[in-house]
Amino acid sequence: xxxxxxxxxxxxxxxxxxxxxxxxxxxxxxxxxxxxxxxxxxxxxxxxxxxxxxxxxxxxxxxxxxxxxxxxxxxxxxxxxxxxxxxxxxxxxxxxxxxxxxxxxxxxxxxxxxxxxxxxxxxxxxxxxxxxxxxxxxxxxxxxxxxxxxxxxxxxxxxxxxxxxxxxxxxxxxxxxxxxxxxxxxxxxxxxxxxxxxxxxxxxxxxxxxxxxxxxxxxxxxxxxxxxxxxxxxxxxxxxxxxxxxxxxxxxxxxxxxxxxxxxxxxxxxxxxxxx
Length: 276
Ligand code: C5P
Hints:
Elements: E1 2-19, E2 25-45, E3 49-53, H1 67-79, E4 84-90, H2 101-117, H3 124-133, H4 137-142, E5 146-150, E6 154-157, E7 165-170, H5 177-182, H6 197-203, H7 209-215, H8 218-227, E8 232-237, E9 244-248, H9 251-264, E10 269-274
Parallel strand pairs: 3-4
Antiparallel strand pairs: 1-2, 2-4, 2-5, 5-6, 7-9, 7-10, 8-9
Helix pairs in contact: 1-2, 1-3, 2-3
The site of cytidine-5'-monophosphate has 11 residues, from strand 2 and helix 5.
């Protein structure tokens, strides 16, 4: 049996540089990952099965097109794996929320199947599976801080952010990634920084924030609430939203902010964690 944490992804910066003829957008992004995420358990079995538990299971139930089963089927086609697998997904991250839940689940499935079959994590066919499953899946396969270019799949790992306290907050509204990208205004606001990732994050921006805020005005309230907290050095939306995050100087202030926000907004999802 293999257990994999499908860590939540944050885009500490996300610069949209242009529209591409293939319908995707050219990006420059600083990916980071947090300690917590969904939990995936895979065991060899007579027959394939897939079940979802956890606080966000209901939002995915009955969806035959889950990224986990797509990842399993792609892995099988690429590596000729003929065994069955029992897969359990404990869904702890909100769905369609800009923190890569589905992409992280797909990547965790690939990592688990690769471990069971003795396939190396940098096998080119495994990377091709990740790439075919979605733009964020290669970054989630790596699950470490990296600069992403292209659709997000051209990755350069970077060091220097581990242990930073982070608070993730989602107002409980799902946002379609495709809808947010399609509302981007087409203005190239310039490249991401180079060098120290703290500076790249600090001097960066998320170009999807304005279109996401149009679609989900609740994001304004989340950003304002995070800005009000003591000890934050960066507040931003992740991916195409609606999850926003704050990075803190120290853990005590992160804990205090989490408890303030939880009591003021009991309906919001709030995760106190740290970057890995
Ligand atoms: O790659 P993925 O399937 O996760 O992307 C979902 C949608 O997000 C795409 O269909 C596209 O509309 C949009 N997208 C984009 N440019 C990217 C990544 C995603 O336009 N670089």
